[in-house]
Specification:
This protein has 8 helices and 11 strands. The protein is an alpha/beta fold. β6, α7 and β7 (about 225-230) form a beta-alpha-beta unit.
């Protein structure tokens, strides 16, 4: 029995679903899905159906792609309505979402609370002297562009920053009410800390990658492991004895398809041993495992 994780499957074609269907059965394992499985409701439902037949339990958080509303379908739900429609879809497939009671893992590694999060971003991963109103233009100077600016609506909130702040505040209250001393596994599509965002090909994409409001959550909420995706740069980091796992698969050209998707499932629990103290603060391990 293991707790596994992956994100950013970006399923969009029959070939991509064939690769997903080739994942072997894991009848005793739980699988965490850290967002960006597919852009359409039909694609997300198909992913849940395939993976739900292979794993004992699925835990899902939305990525930005799952929240997109295409202009060609103006009647489609957007913003909070879009999110709630994806939550309802997940529940129909028996998948745990950020709106559900947090499940307790009782397998190898001991009891942990599995906490799926939906927090968004607020452009605070930007230079301190850069006004937020200039973020998009600043990023574009080095060809960093995020489609969220056209497709991810914050309705009914005025801005994505407002929606992010509301999600962070509500989630922090919920986390503070957890039983004291019980370790947590936090799952968010975006990294919880700015120093975990390392995307050398497009460094100015960082404003769309999280919020500084969660920088200390690994200390505040007794976090054993924090899981994220979004960056398409798989790696393991340690901060203050907390393990941070970036578990994204990415687009087809970003991973070795001969290995198959199963090779990229990251083991969270029981997981690897804690590193030696001298590398714990900034240790990094990259690549598929």
């Amino acid at each position: 029995m293991r707790l596994l994780a992956i994100s950013d499957l970006h399923l969009a074609s029959d070939a991509s679903f064939e690769r997903l269907e080739a994942v072997p059965d894991h009848p005793e394992d739980w699988l965490i899905l850290a967002g960006d499985l597919a852009e359409t409701a039909d694609g997300l439902a198909r992913a849940f159906a395939v993976l739900g037949s292979k794993f004992a339990k699925l835990v899902w958080v939305p990525g930005n792609h799952e929240l997109w509303t295409r202009a060609r379908n103006p009647a489609a739900p957007r913003g909070v309505d879009r999110y709630e429609s994806m939550v309802a879809l997940a529940r129909r497939h028996g998948v745990t979402t950020p709106e559900d009671p947090y499940p307790i893992w009782t397998g190898p590694g001991g009891e942990h609370v599995i906490v799926p999060l939906f927090l968004l971003y607020d452009y605070s991963f930007r230079p301190p002297d850069l006004p937020v109103e200039e973020v998009v233009a600043w990023a574009a100077e080095e060809s960093a562009v995020c489609a969220d600016e056209l497709l991810l609506y914050p309705d009914p909130y005025p801005t994505r920053q407002d929606w992010c702040r509301a999600r962070v505040e509500a989630t922090a209250r919920r986390l503070a009410a957890l039983p004291a001393g019980l370790p947590t596994v936090l799952v968010n599509h975006y990294p919880l800390r700015r120093d975990l965002v390392r995307i050398p090909r497009i460094p100015r994409f960082s404003p769309w990658c999280g919020t500084v409001l969660t920088e200390d959550w690994h200390r505040r909420f007794h976090v054993a492991v924090a899981i994220s995706g979004h960056l398409h740069v798989r790696h393991t980091d340690w901060r203050d004895a907390t393990r941070f796992e970036e578990v994204s698969l990415g687009y087809p050209y970003q991973w070795e398809q001969n290995y198959g998707i199963a090779a990229y499932l990251r083991e969270i629990l029981p997981g690897p041993p804690e590193p030696a103290p001298h590398i714990r603060a900034s240790g990094r391990r990259a690549g598929p495992r």
